[in-house]
Specification:
This protein is mostly beta strands and about 270 residues long. The protein has one domain: Jelly Rolls. The chain is about 5% helix and about 45% strand. It contains 2 helices and 23 strands. A 7-stranded antiparallel β-sheet has the order 1-20-17-22-14-13-12, with no helix packed on it. The protein has a 6-stranded antiparallel β-sheet with strand order 2-3-10-5-8-11. Strands 4-9-6-7 form a 4-stranded antiparallel β-sheet, with no helix packed on it. A hairpin with a 2-residue loop joins β6 and β7.
């Protein structure tokens, strides 16, 4: 199995727990809790900022000295309702108590204290369409650079219909060369509908030093340290993924693969 593909550890509790040290990079961390109703979890943020994304289900959340009450109104992520999300600054703690069975994603990146804890969704989030034809997908830009809601983190949800491609044409953001490109590490947390489905993700560099193609199943996590990283959803199965990105600066600048950039230019004349 590819070292970039991480399977969930068990069926409950913290099923994903990727730190920068574990991933072999410098910025992105990702955790995912699968909780039963009544279960409580909490963490200290330390030297990282955190965006909590209630992937599905309901939970009462507090952190950074604020009580946000019960959050969540999609019982399955594939309802495509805007996600309930909370920003927690560095040097704070957060807690969550599940009201129903739920999935809670913990997105982290280095930051200094100073921001206030705040709700950053569902208010201000709308479902946007990207691409066309079999490259159509639907996006909630939870914390991209247009929203001043974090110091380092960039977080996005993507829904890819069955038979479609996503993160496509292939693109990369692995050089610290702003404004032409930014260095951003990235994780993909995948869900499939129906859950017995599968999808594909390829992570590859133009020089061939990295070339991994992975079959992803419901609940899998993929690490993207560098290179291009397109996804495909086979006919009959809808793909969701939660992206977390971070790097030296909080901007998303990428370049398409030169062999496939014509697709982008066709769609964006």
């Amino acid at each position: 199995m590819s070292h970039l593909l991480r399977k969930p550890k068990g069926r409950g509790g913290k099923v994903h727990d990727v730190t920068p040290k574990d991933a072999g990079w410098g910025y992105v961390g990702f955790g995912l809790y699968k909780l039963k109703a009544g279960e409580t979890v909490g963490e200290e943020t330390g030297e990282t900022e955190v965006i909590l994304v209630l992937v599905q289900g309901k939970a009462s959340v507090s952190g950074g000295g604020k009580d946000f009450g019960e959050l969540g109104d999609r019982m399955t992520v594939f309802e495509r309702k805007p996600p309930h999300c909370v920003y927690i600054p560095a040097g704070a703690t957060w807690n969550a108590t599940a009201s129903t069975d739920c999935e809670l994603a913990v997105c982290t990146a280095p930051a200094k204290p100073g921001r206030e804890a705040a709700l950053i969704g569902p208010q201000g989030l709308s479902l946007n369409t990207r691409g066309r034809d079999a490259n159509t997908r639907y996006i909630y830009a939870i914390a991209m650079e247009e929203r001043d809601v974090a110091d380092s983190l960039l977080v996005t949800e993507v829904f890819t219909p069955s038979g479609n491609w996503s993160s496509y044409p292939p693109h990369r953001h692995d050089e610290d060369n702003f404004p032409d490109m930014t260095y951003l590490e990235e994780t993909y947390y995948h869900r499939l509908n129906p859950a017995q489905g599968f999808g594909f993700q390829r992570v590859f560099t133009e020089d061939g030093s990295l070339d991994e193609t992975m079959a992803v199943e419901d609940g899998d996590l993929v690490l993207v340290p560098k290179g291009h990283h397109p996804c495909g959803a086979p006919y009959g199965y809808e793909m969701y993924y939660l992206n977390v990105m971070a790097g030296p600066i909080r901007k998303w600048r990428f370049k398409n693969h030169p062999d496939h950039d014509w697709i982008f230019r066709r769609d964006n004349p």
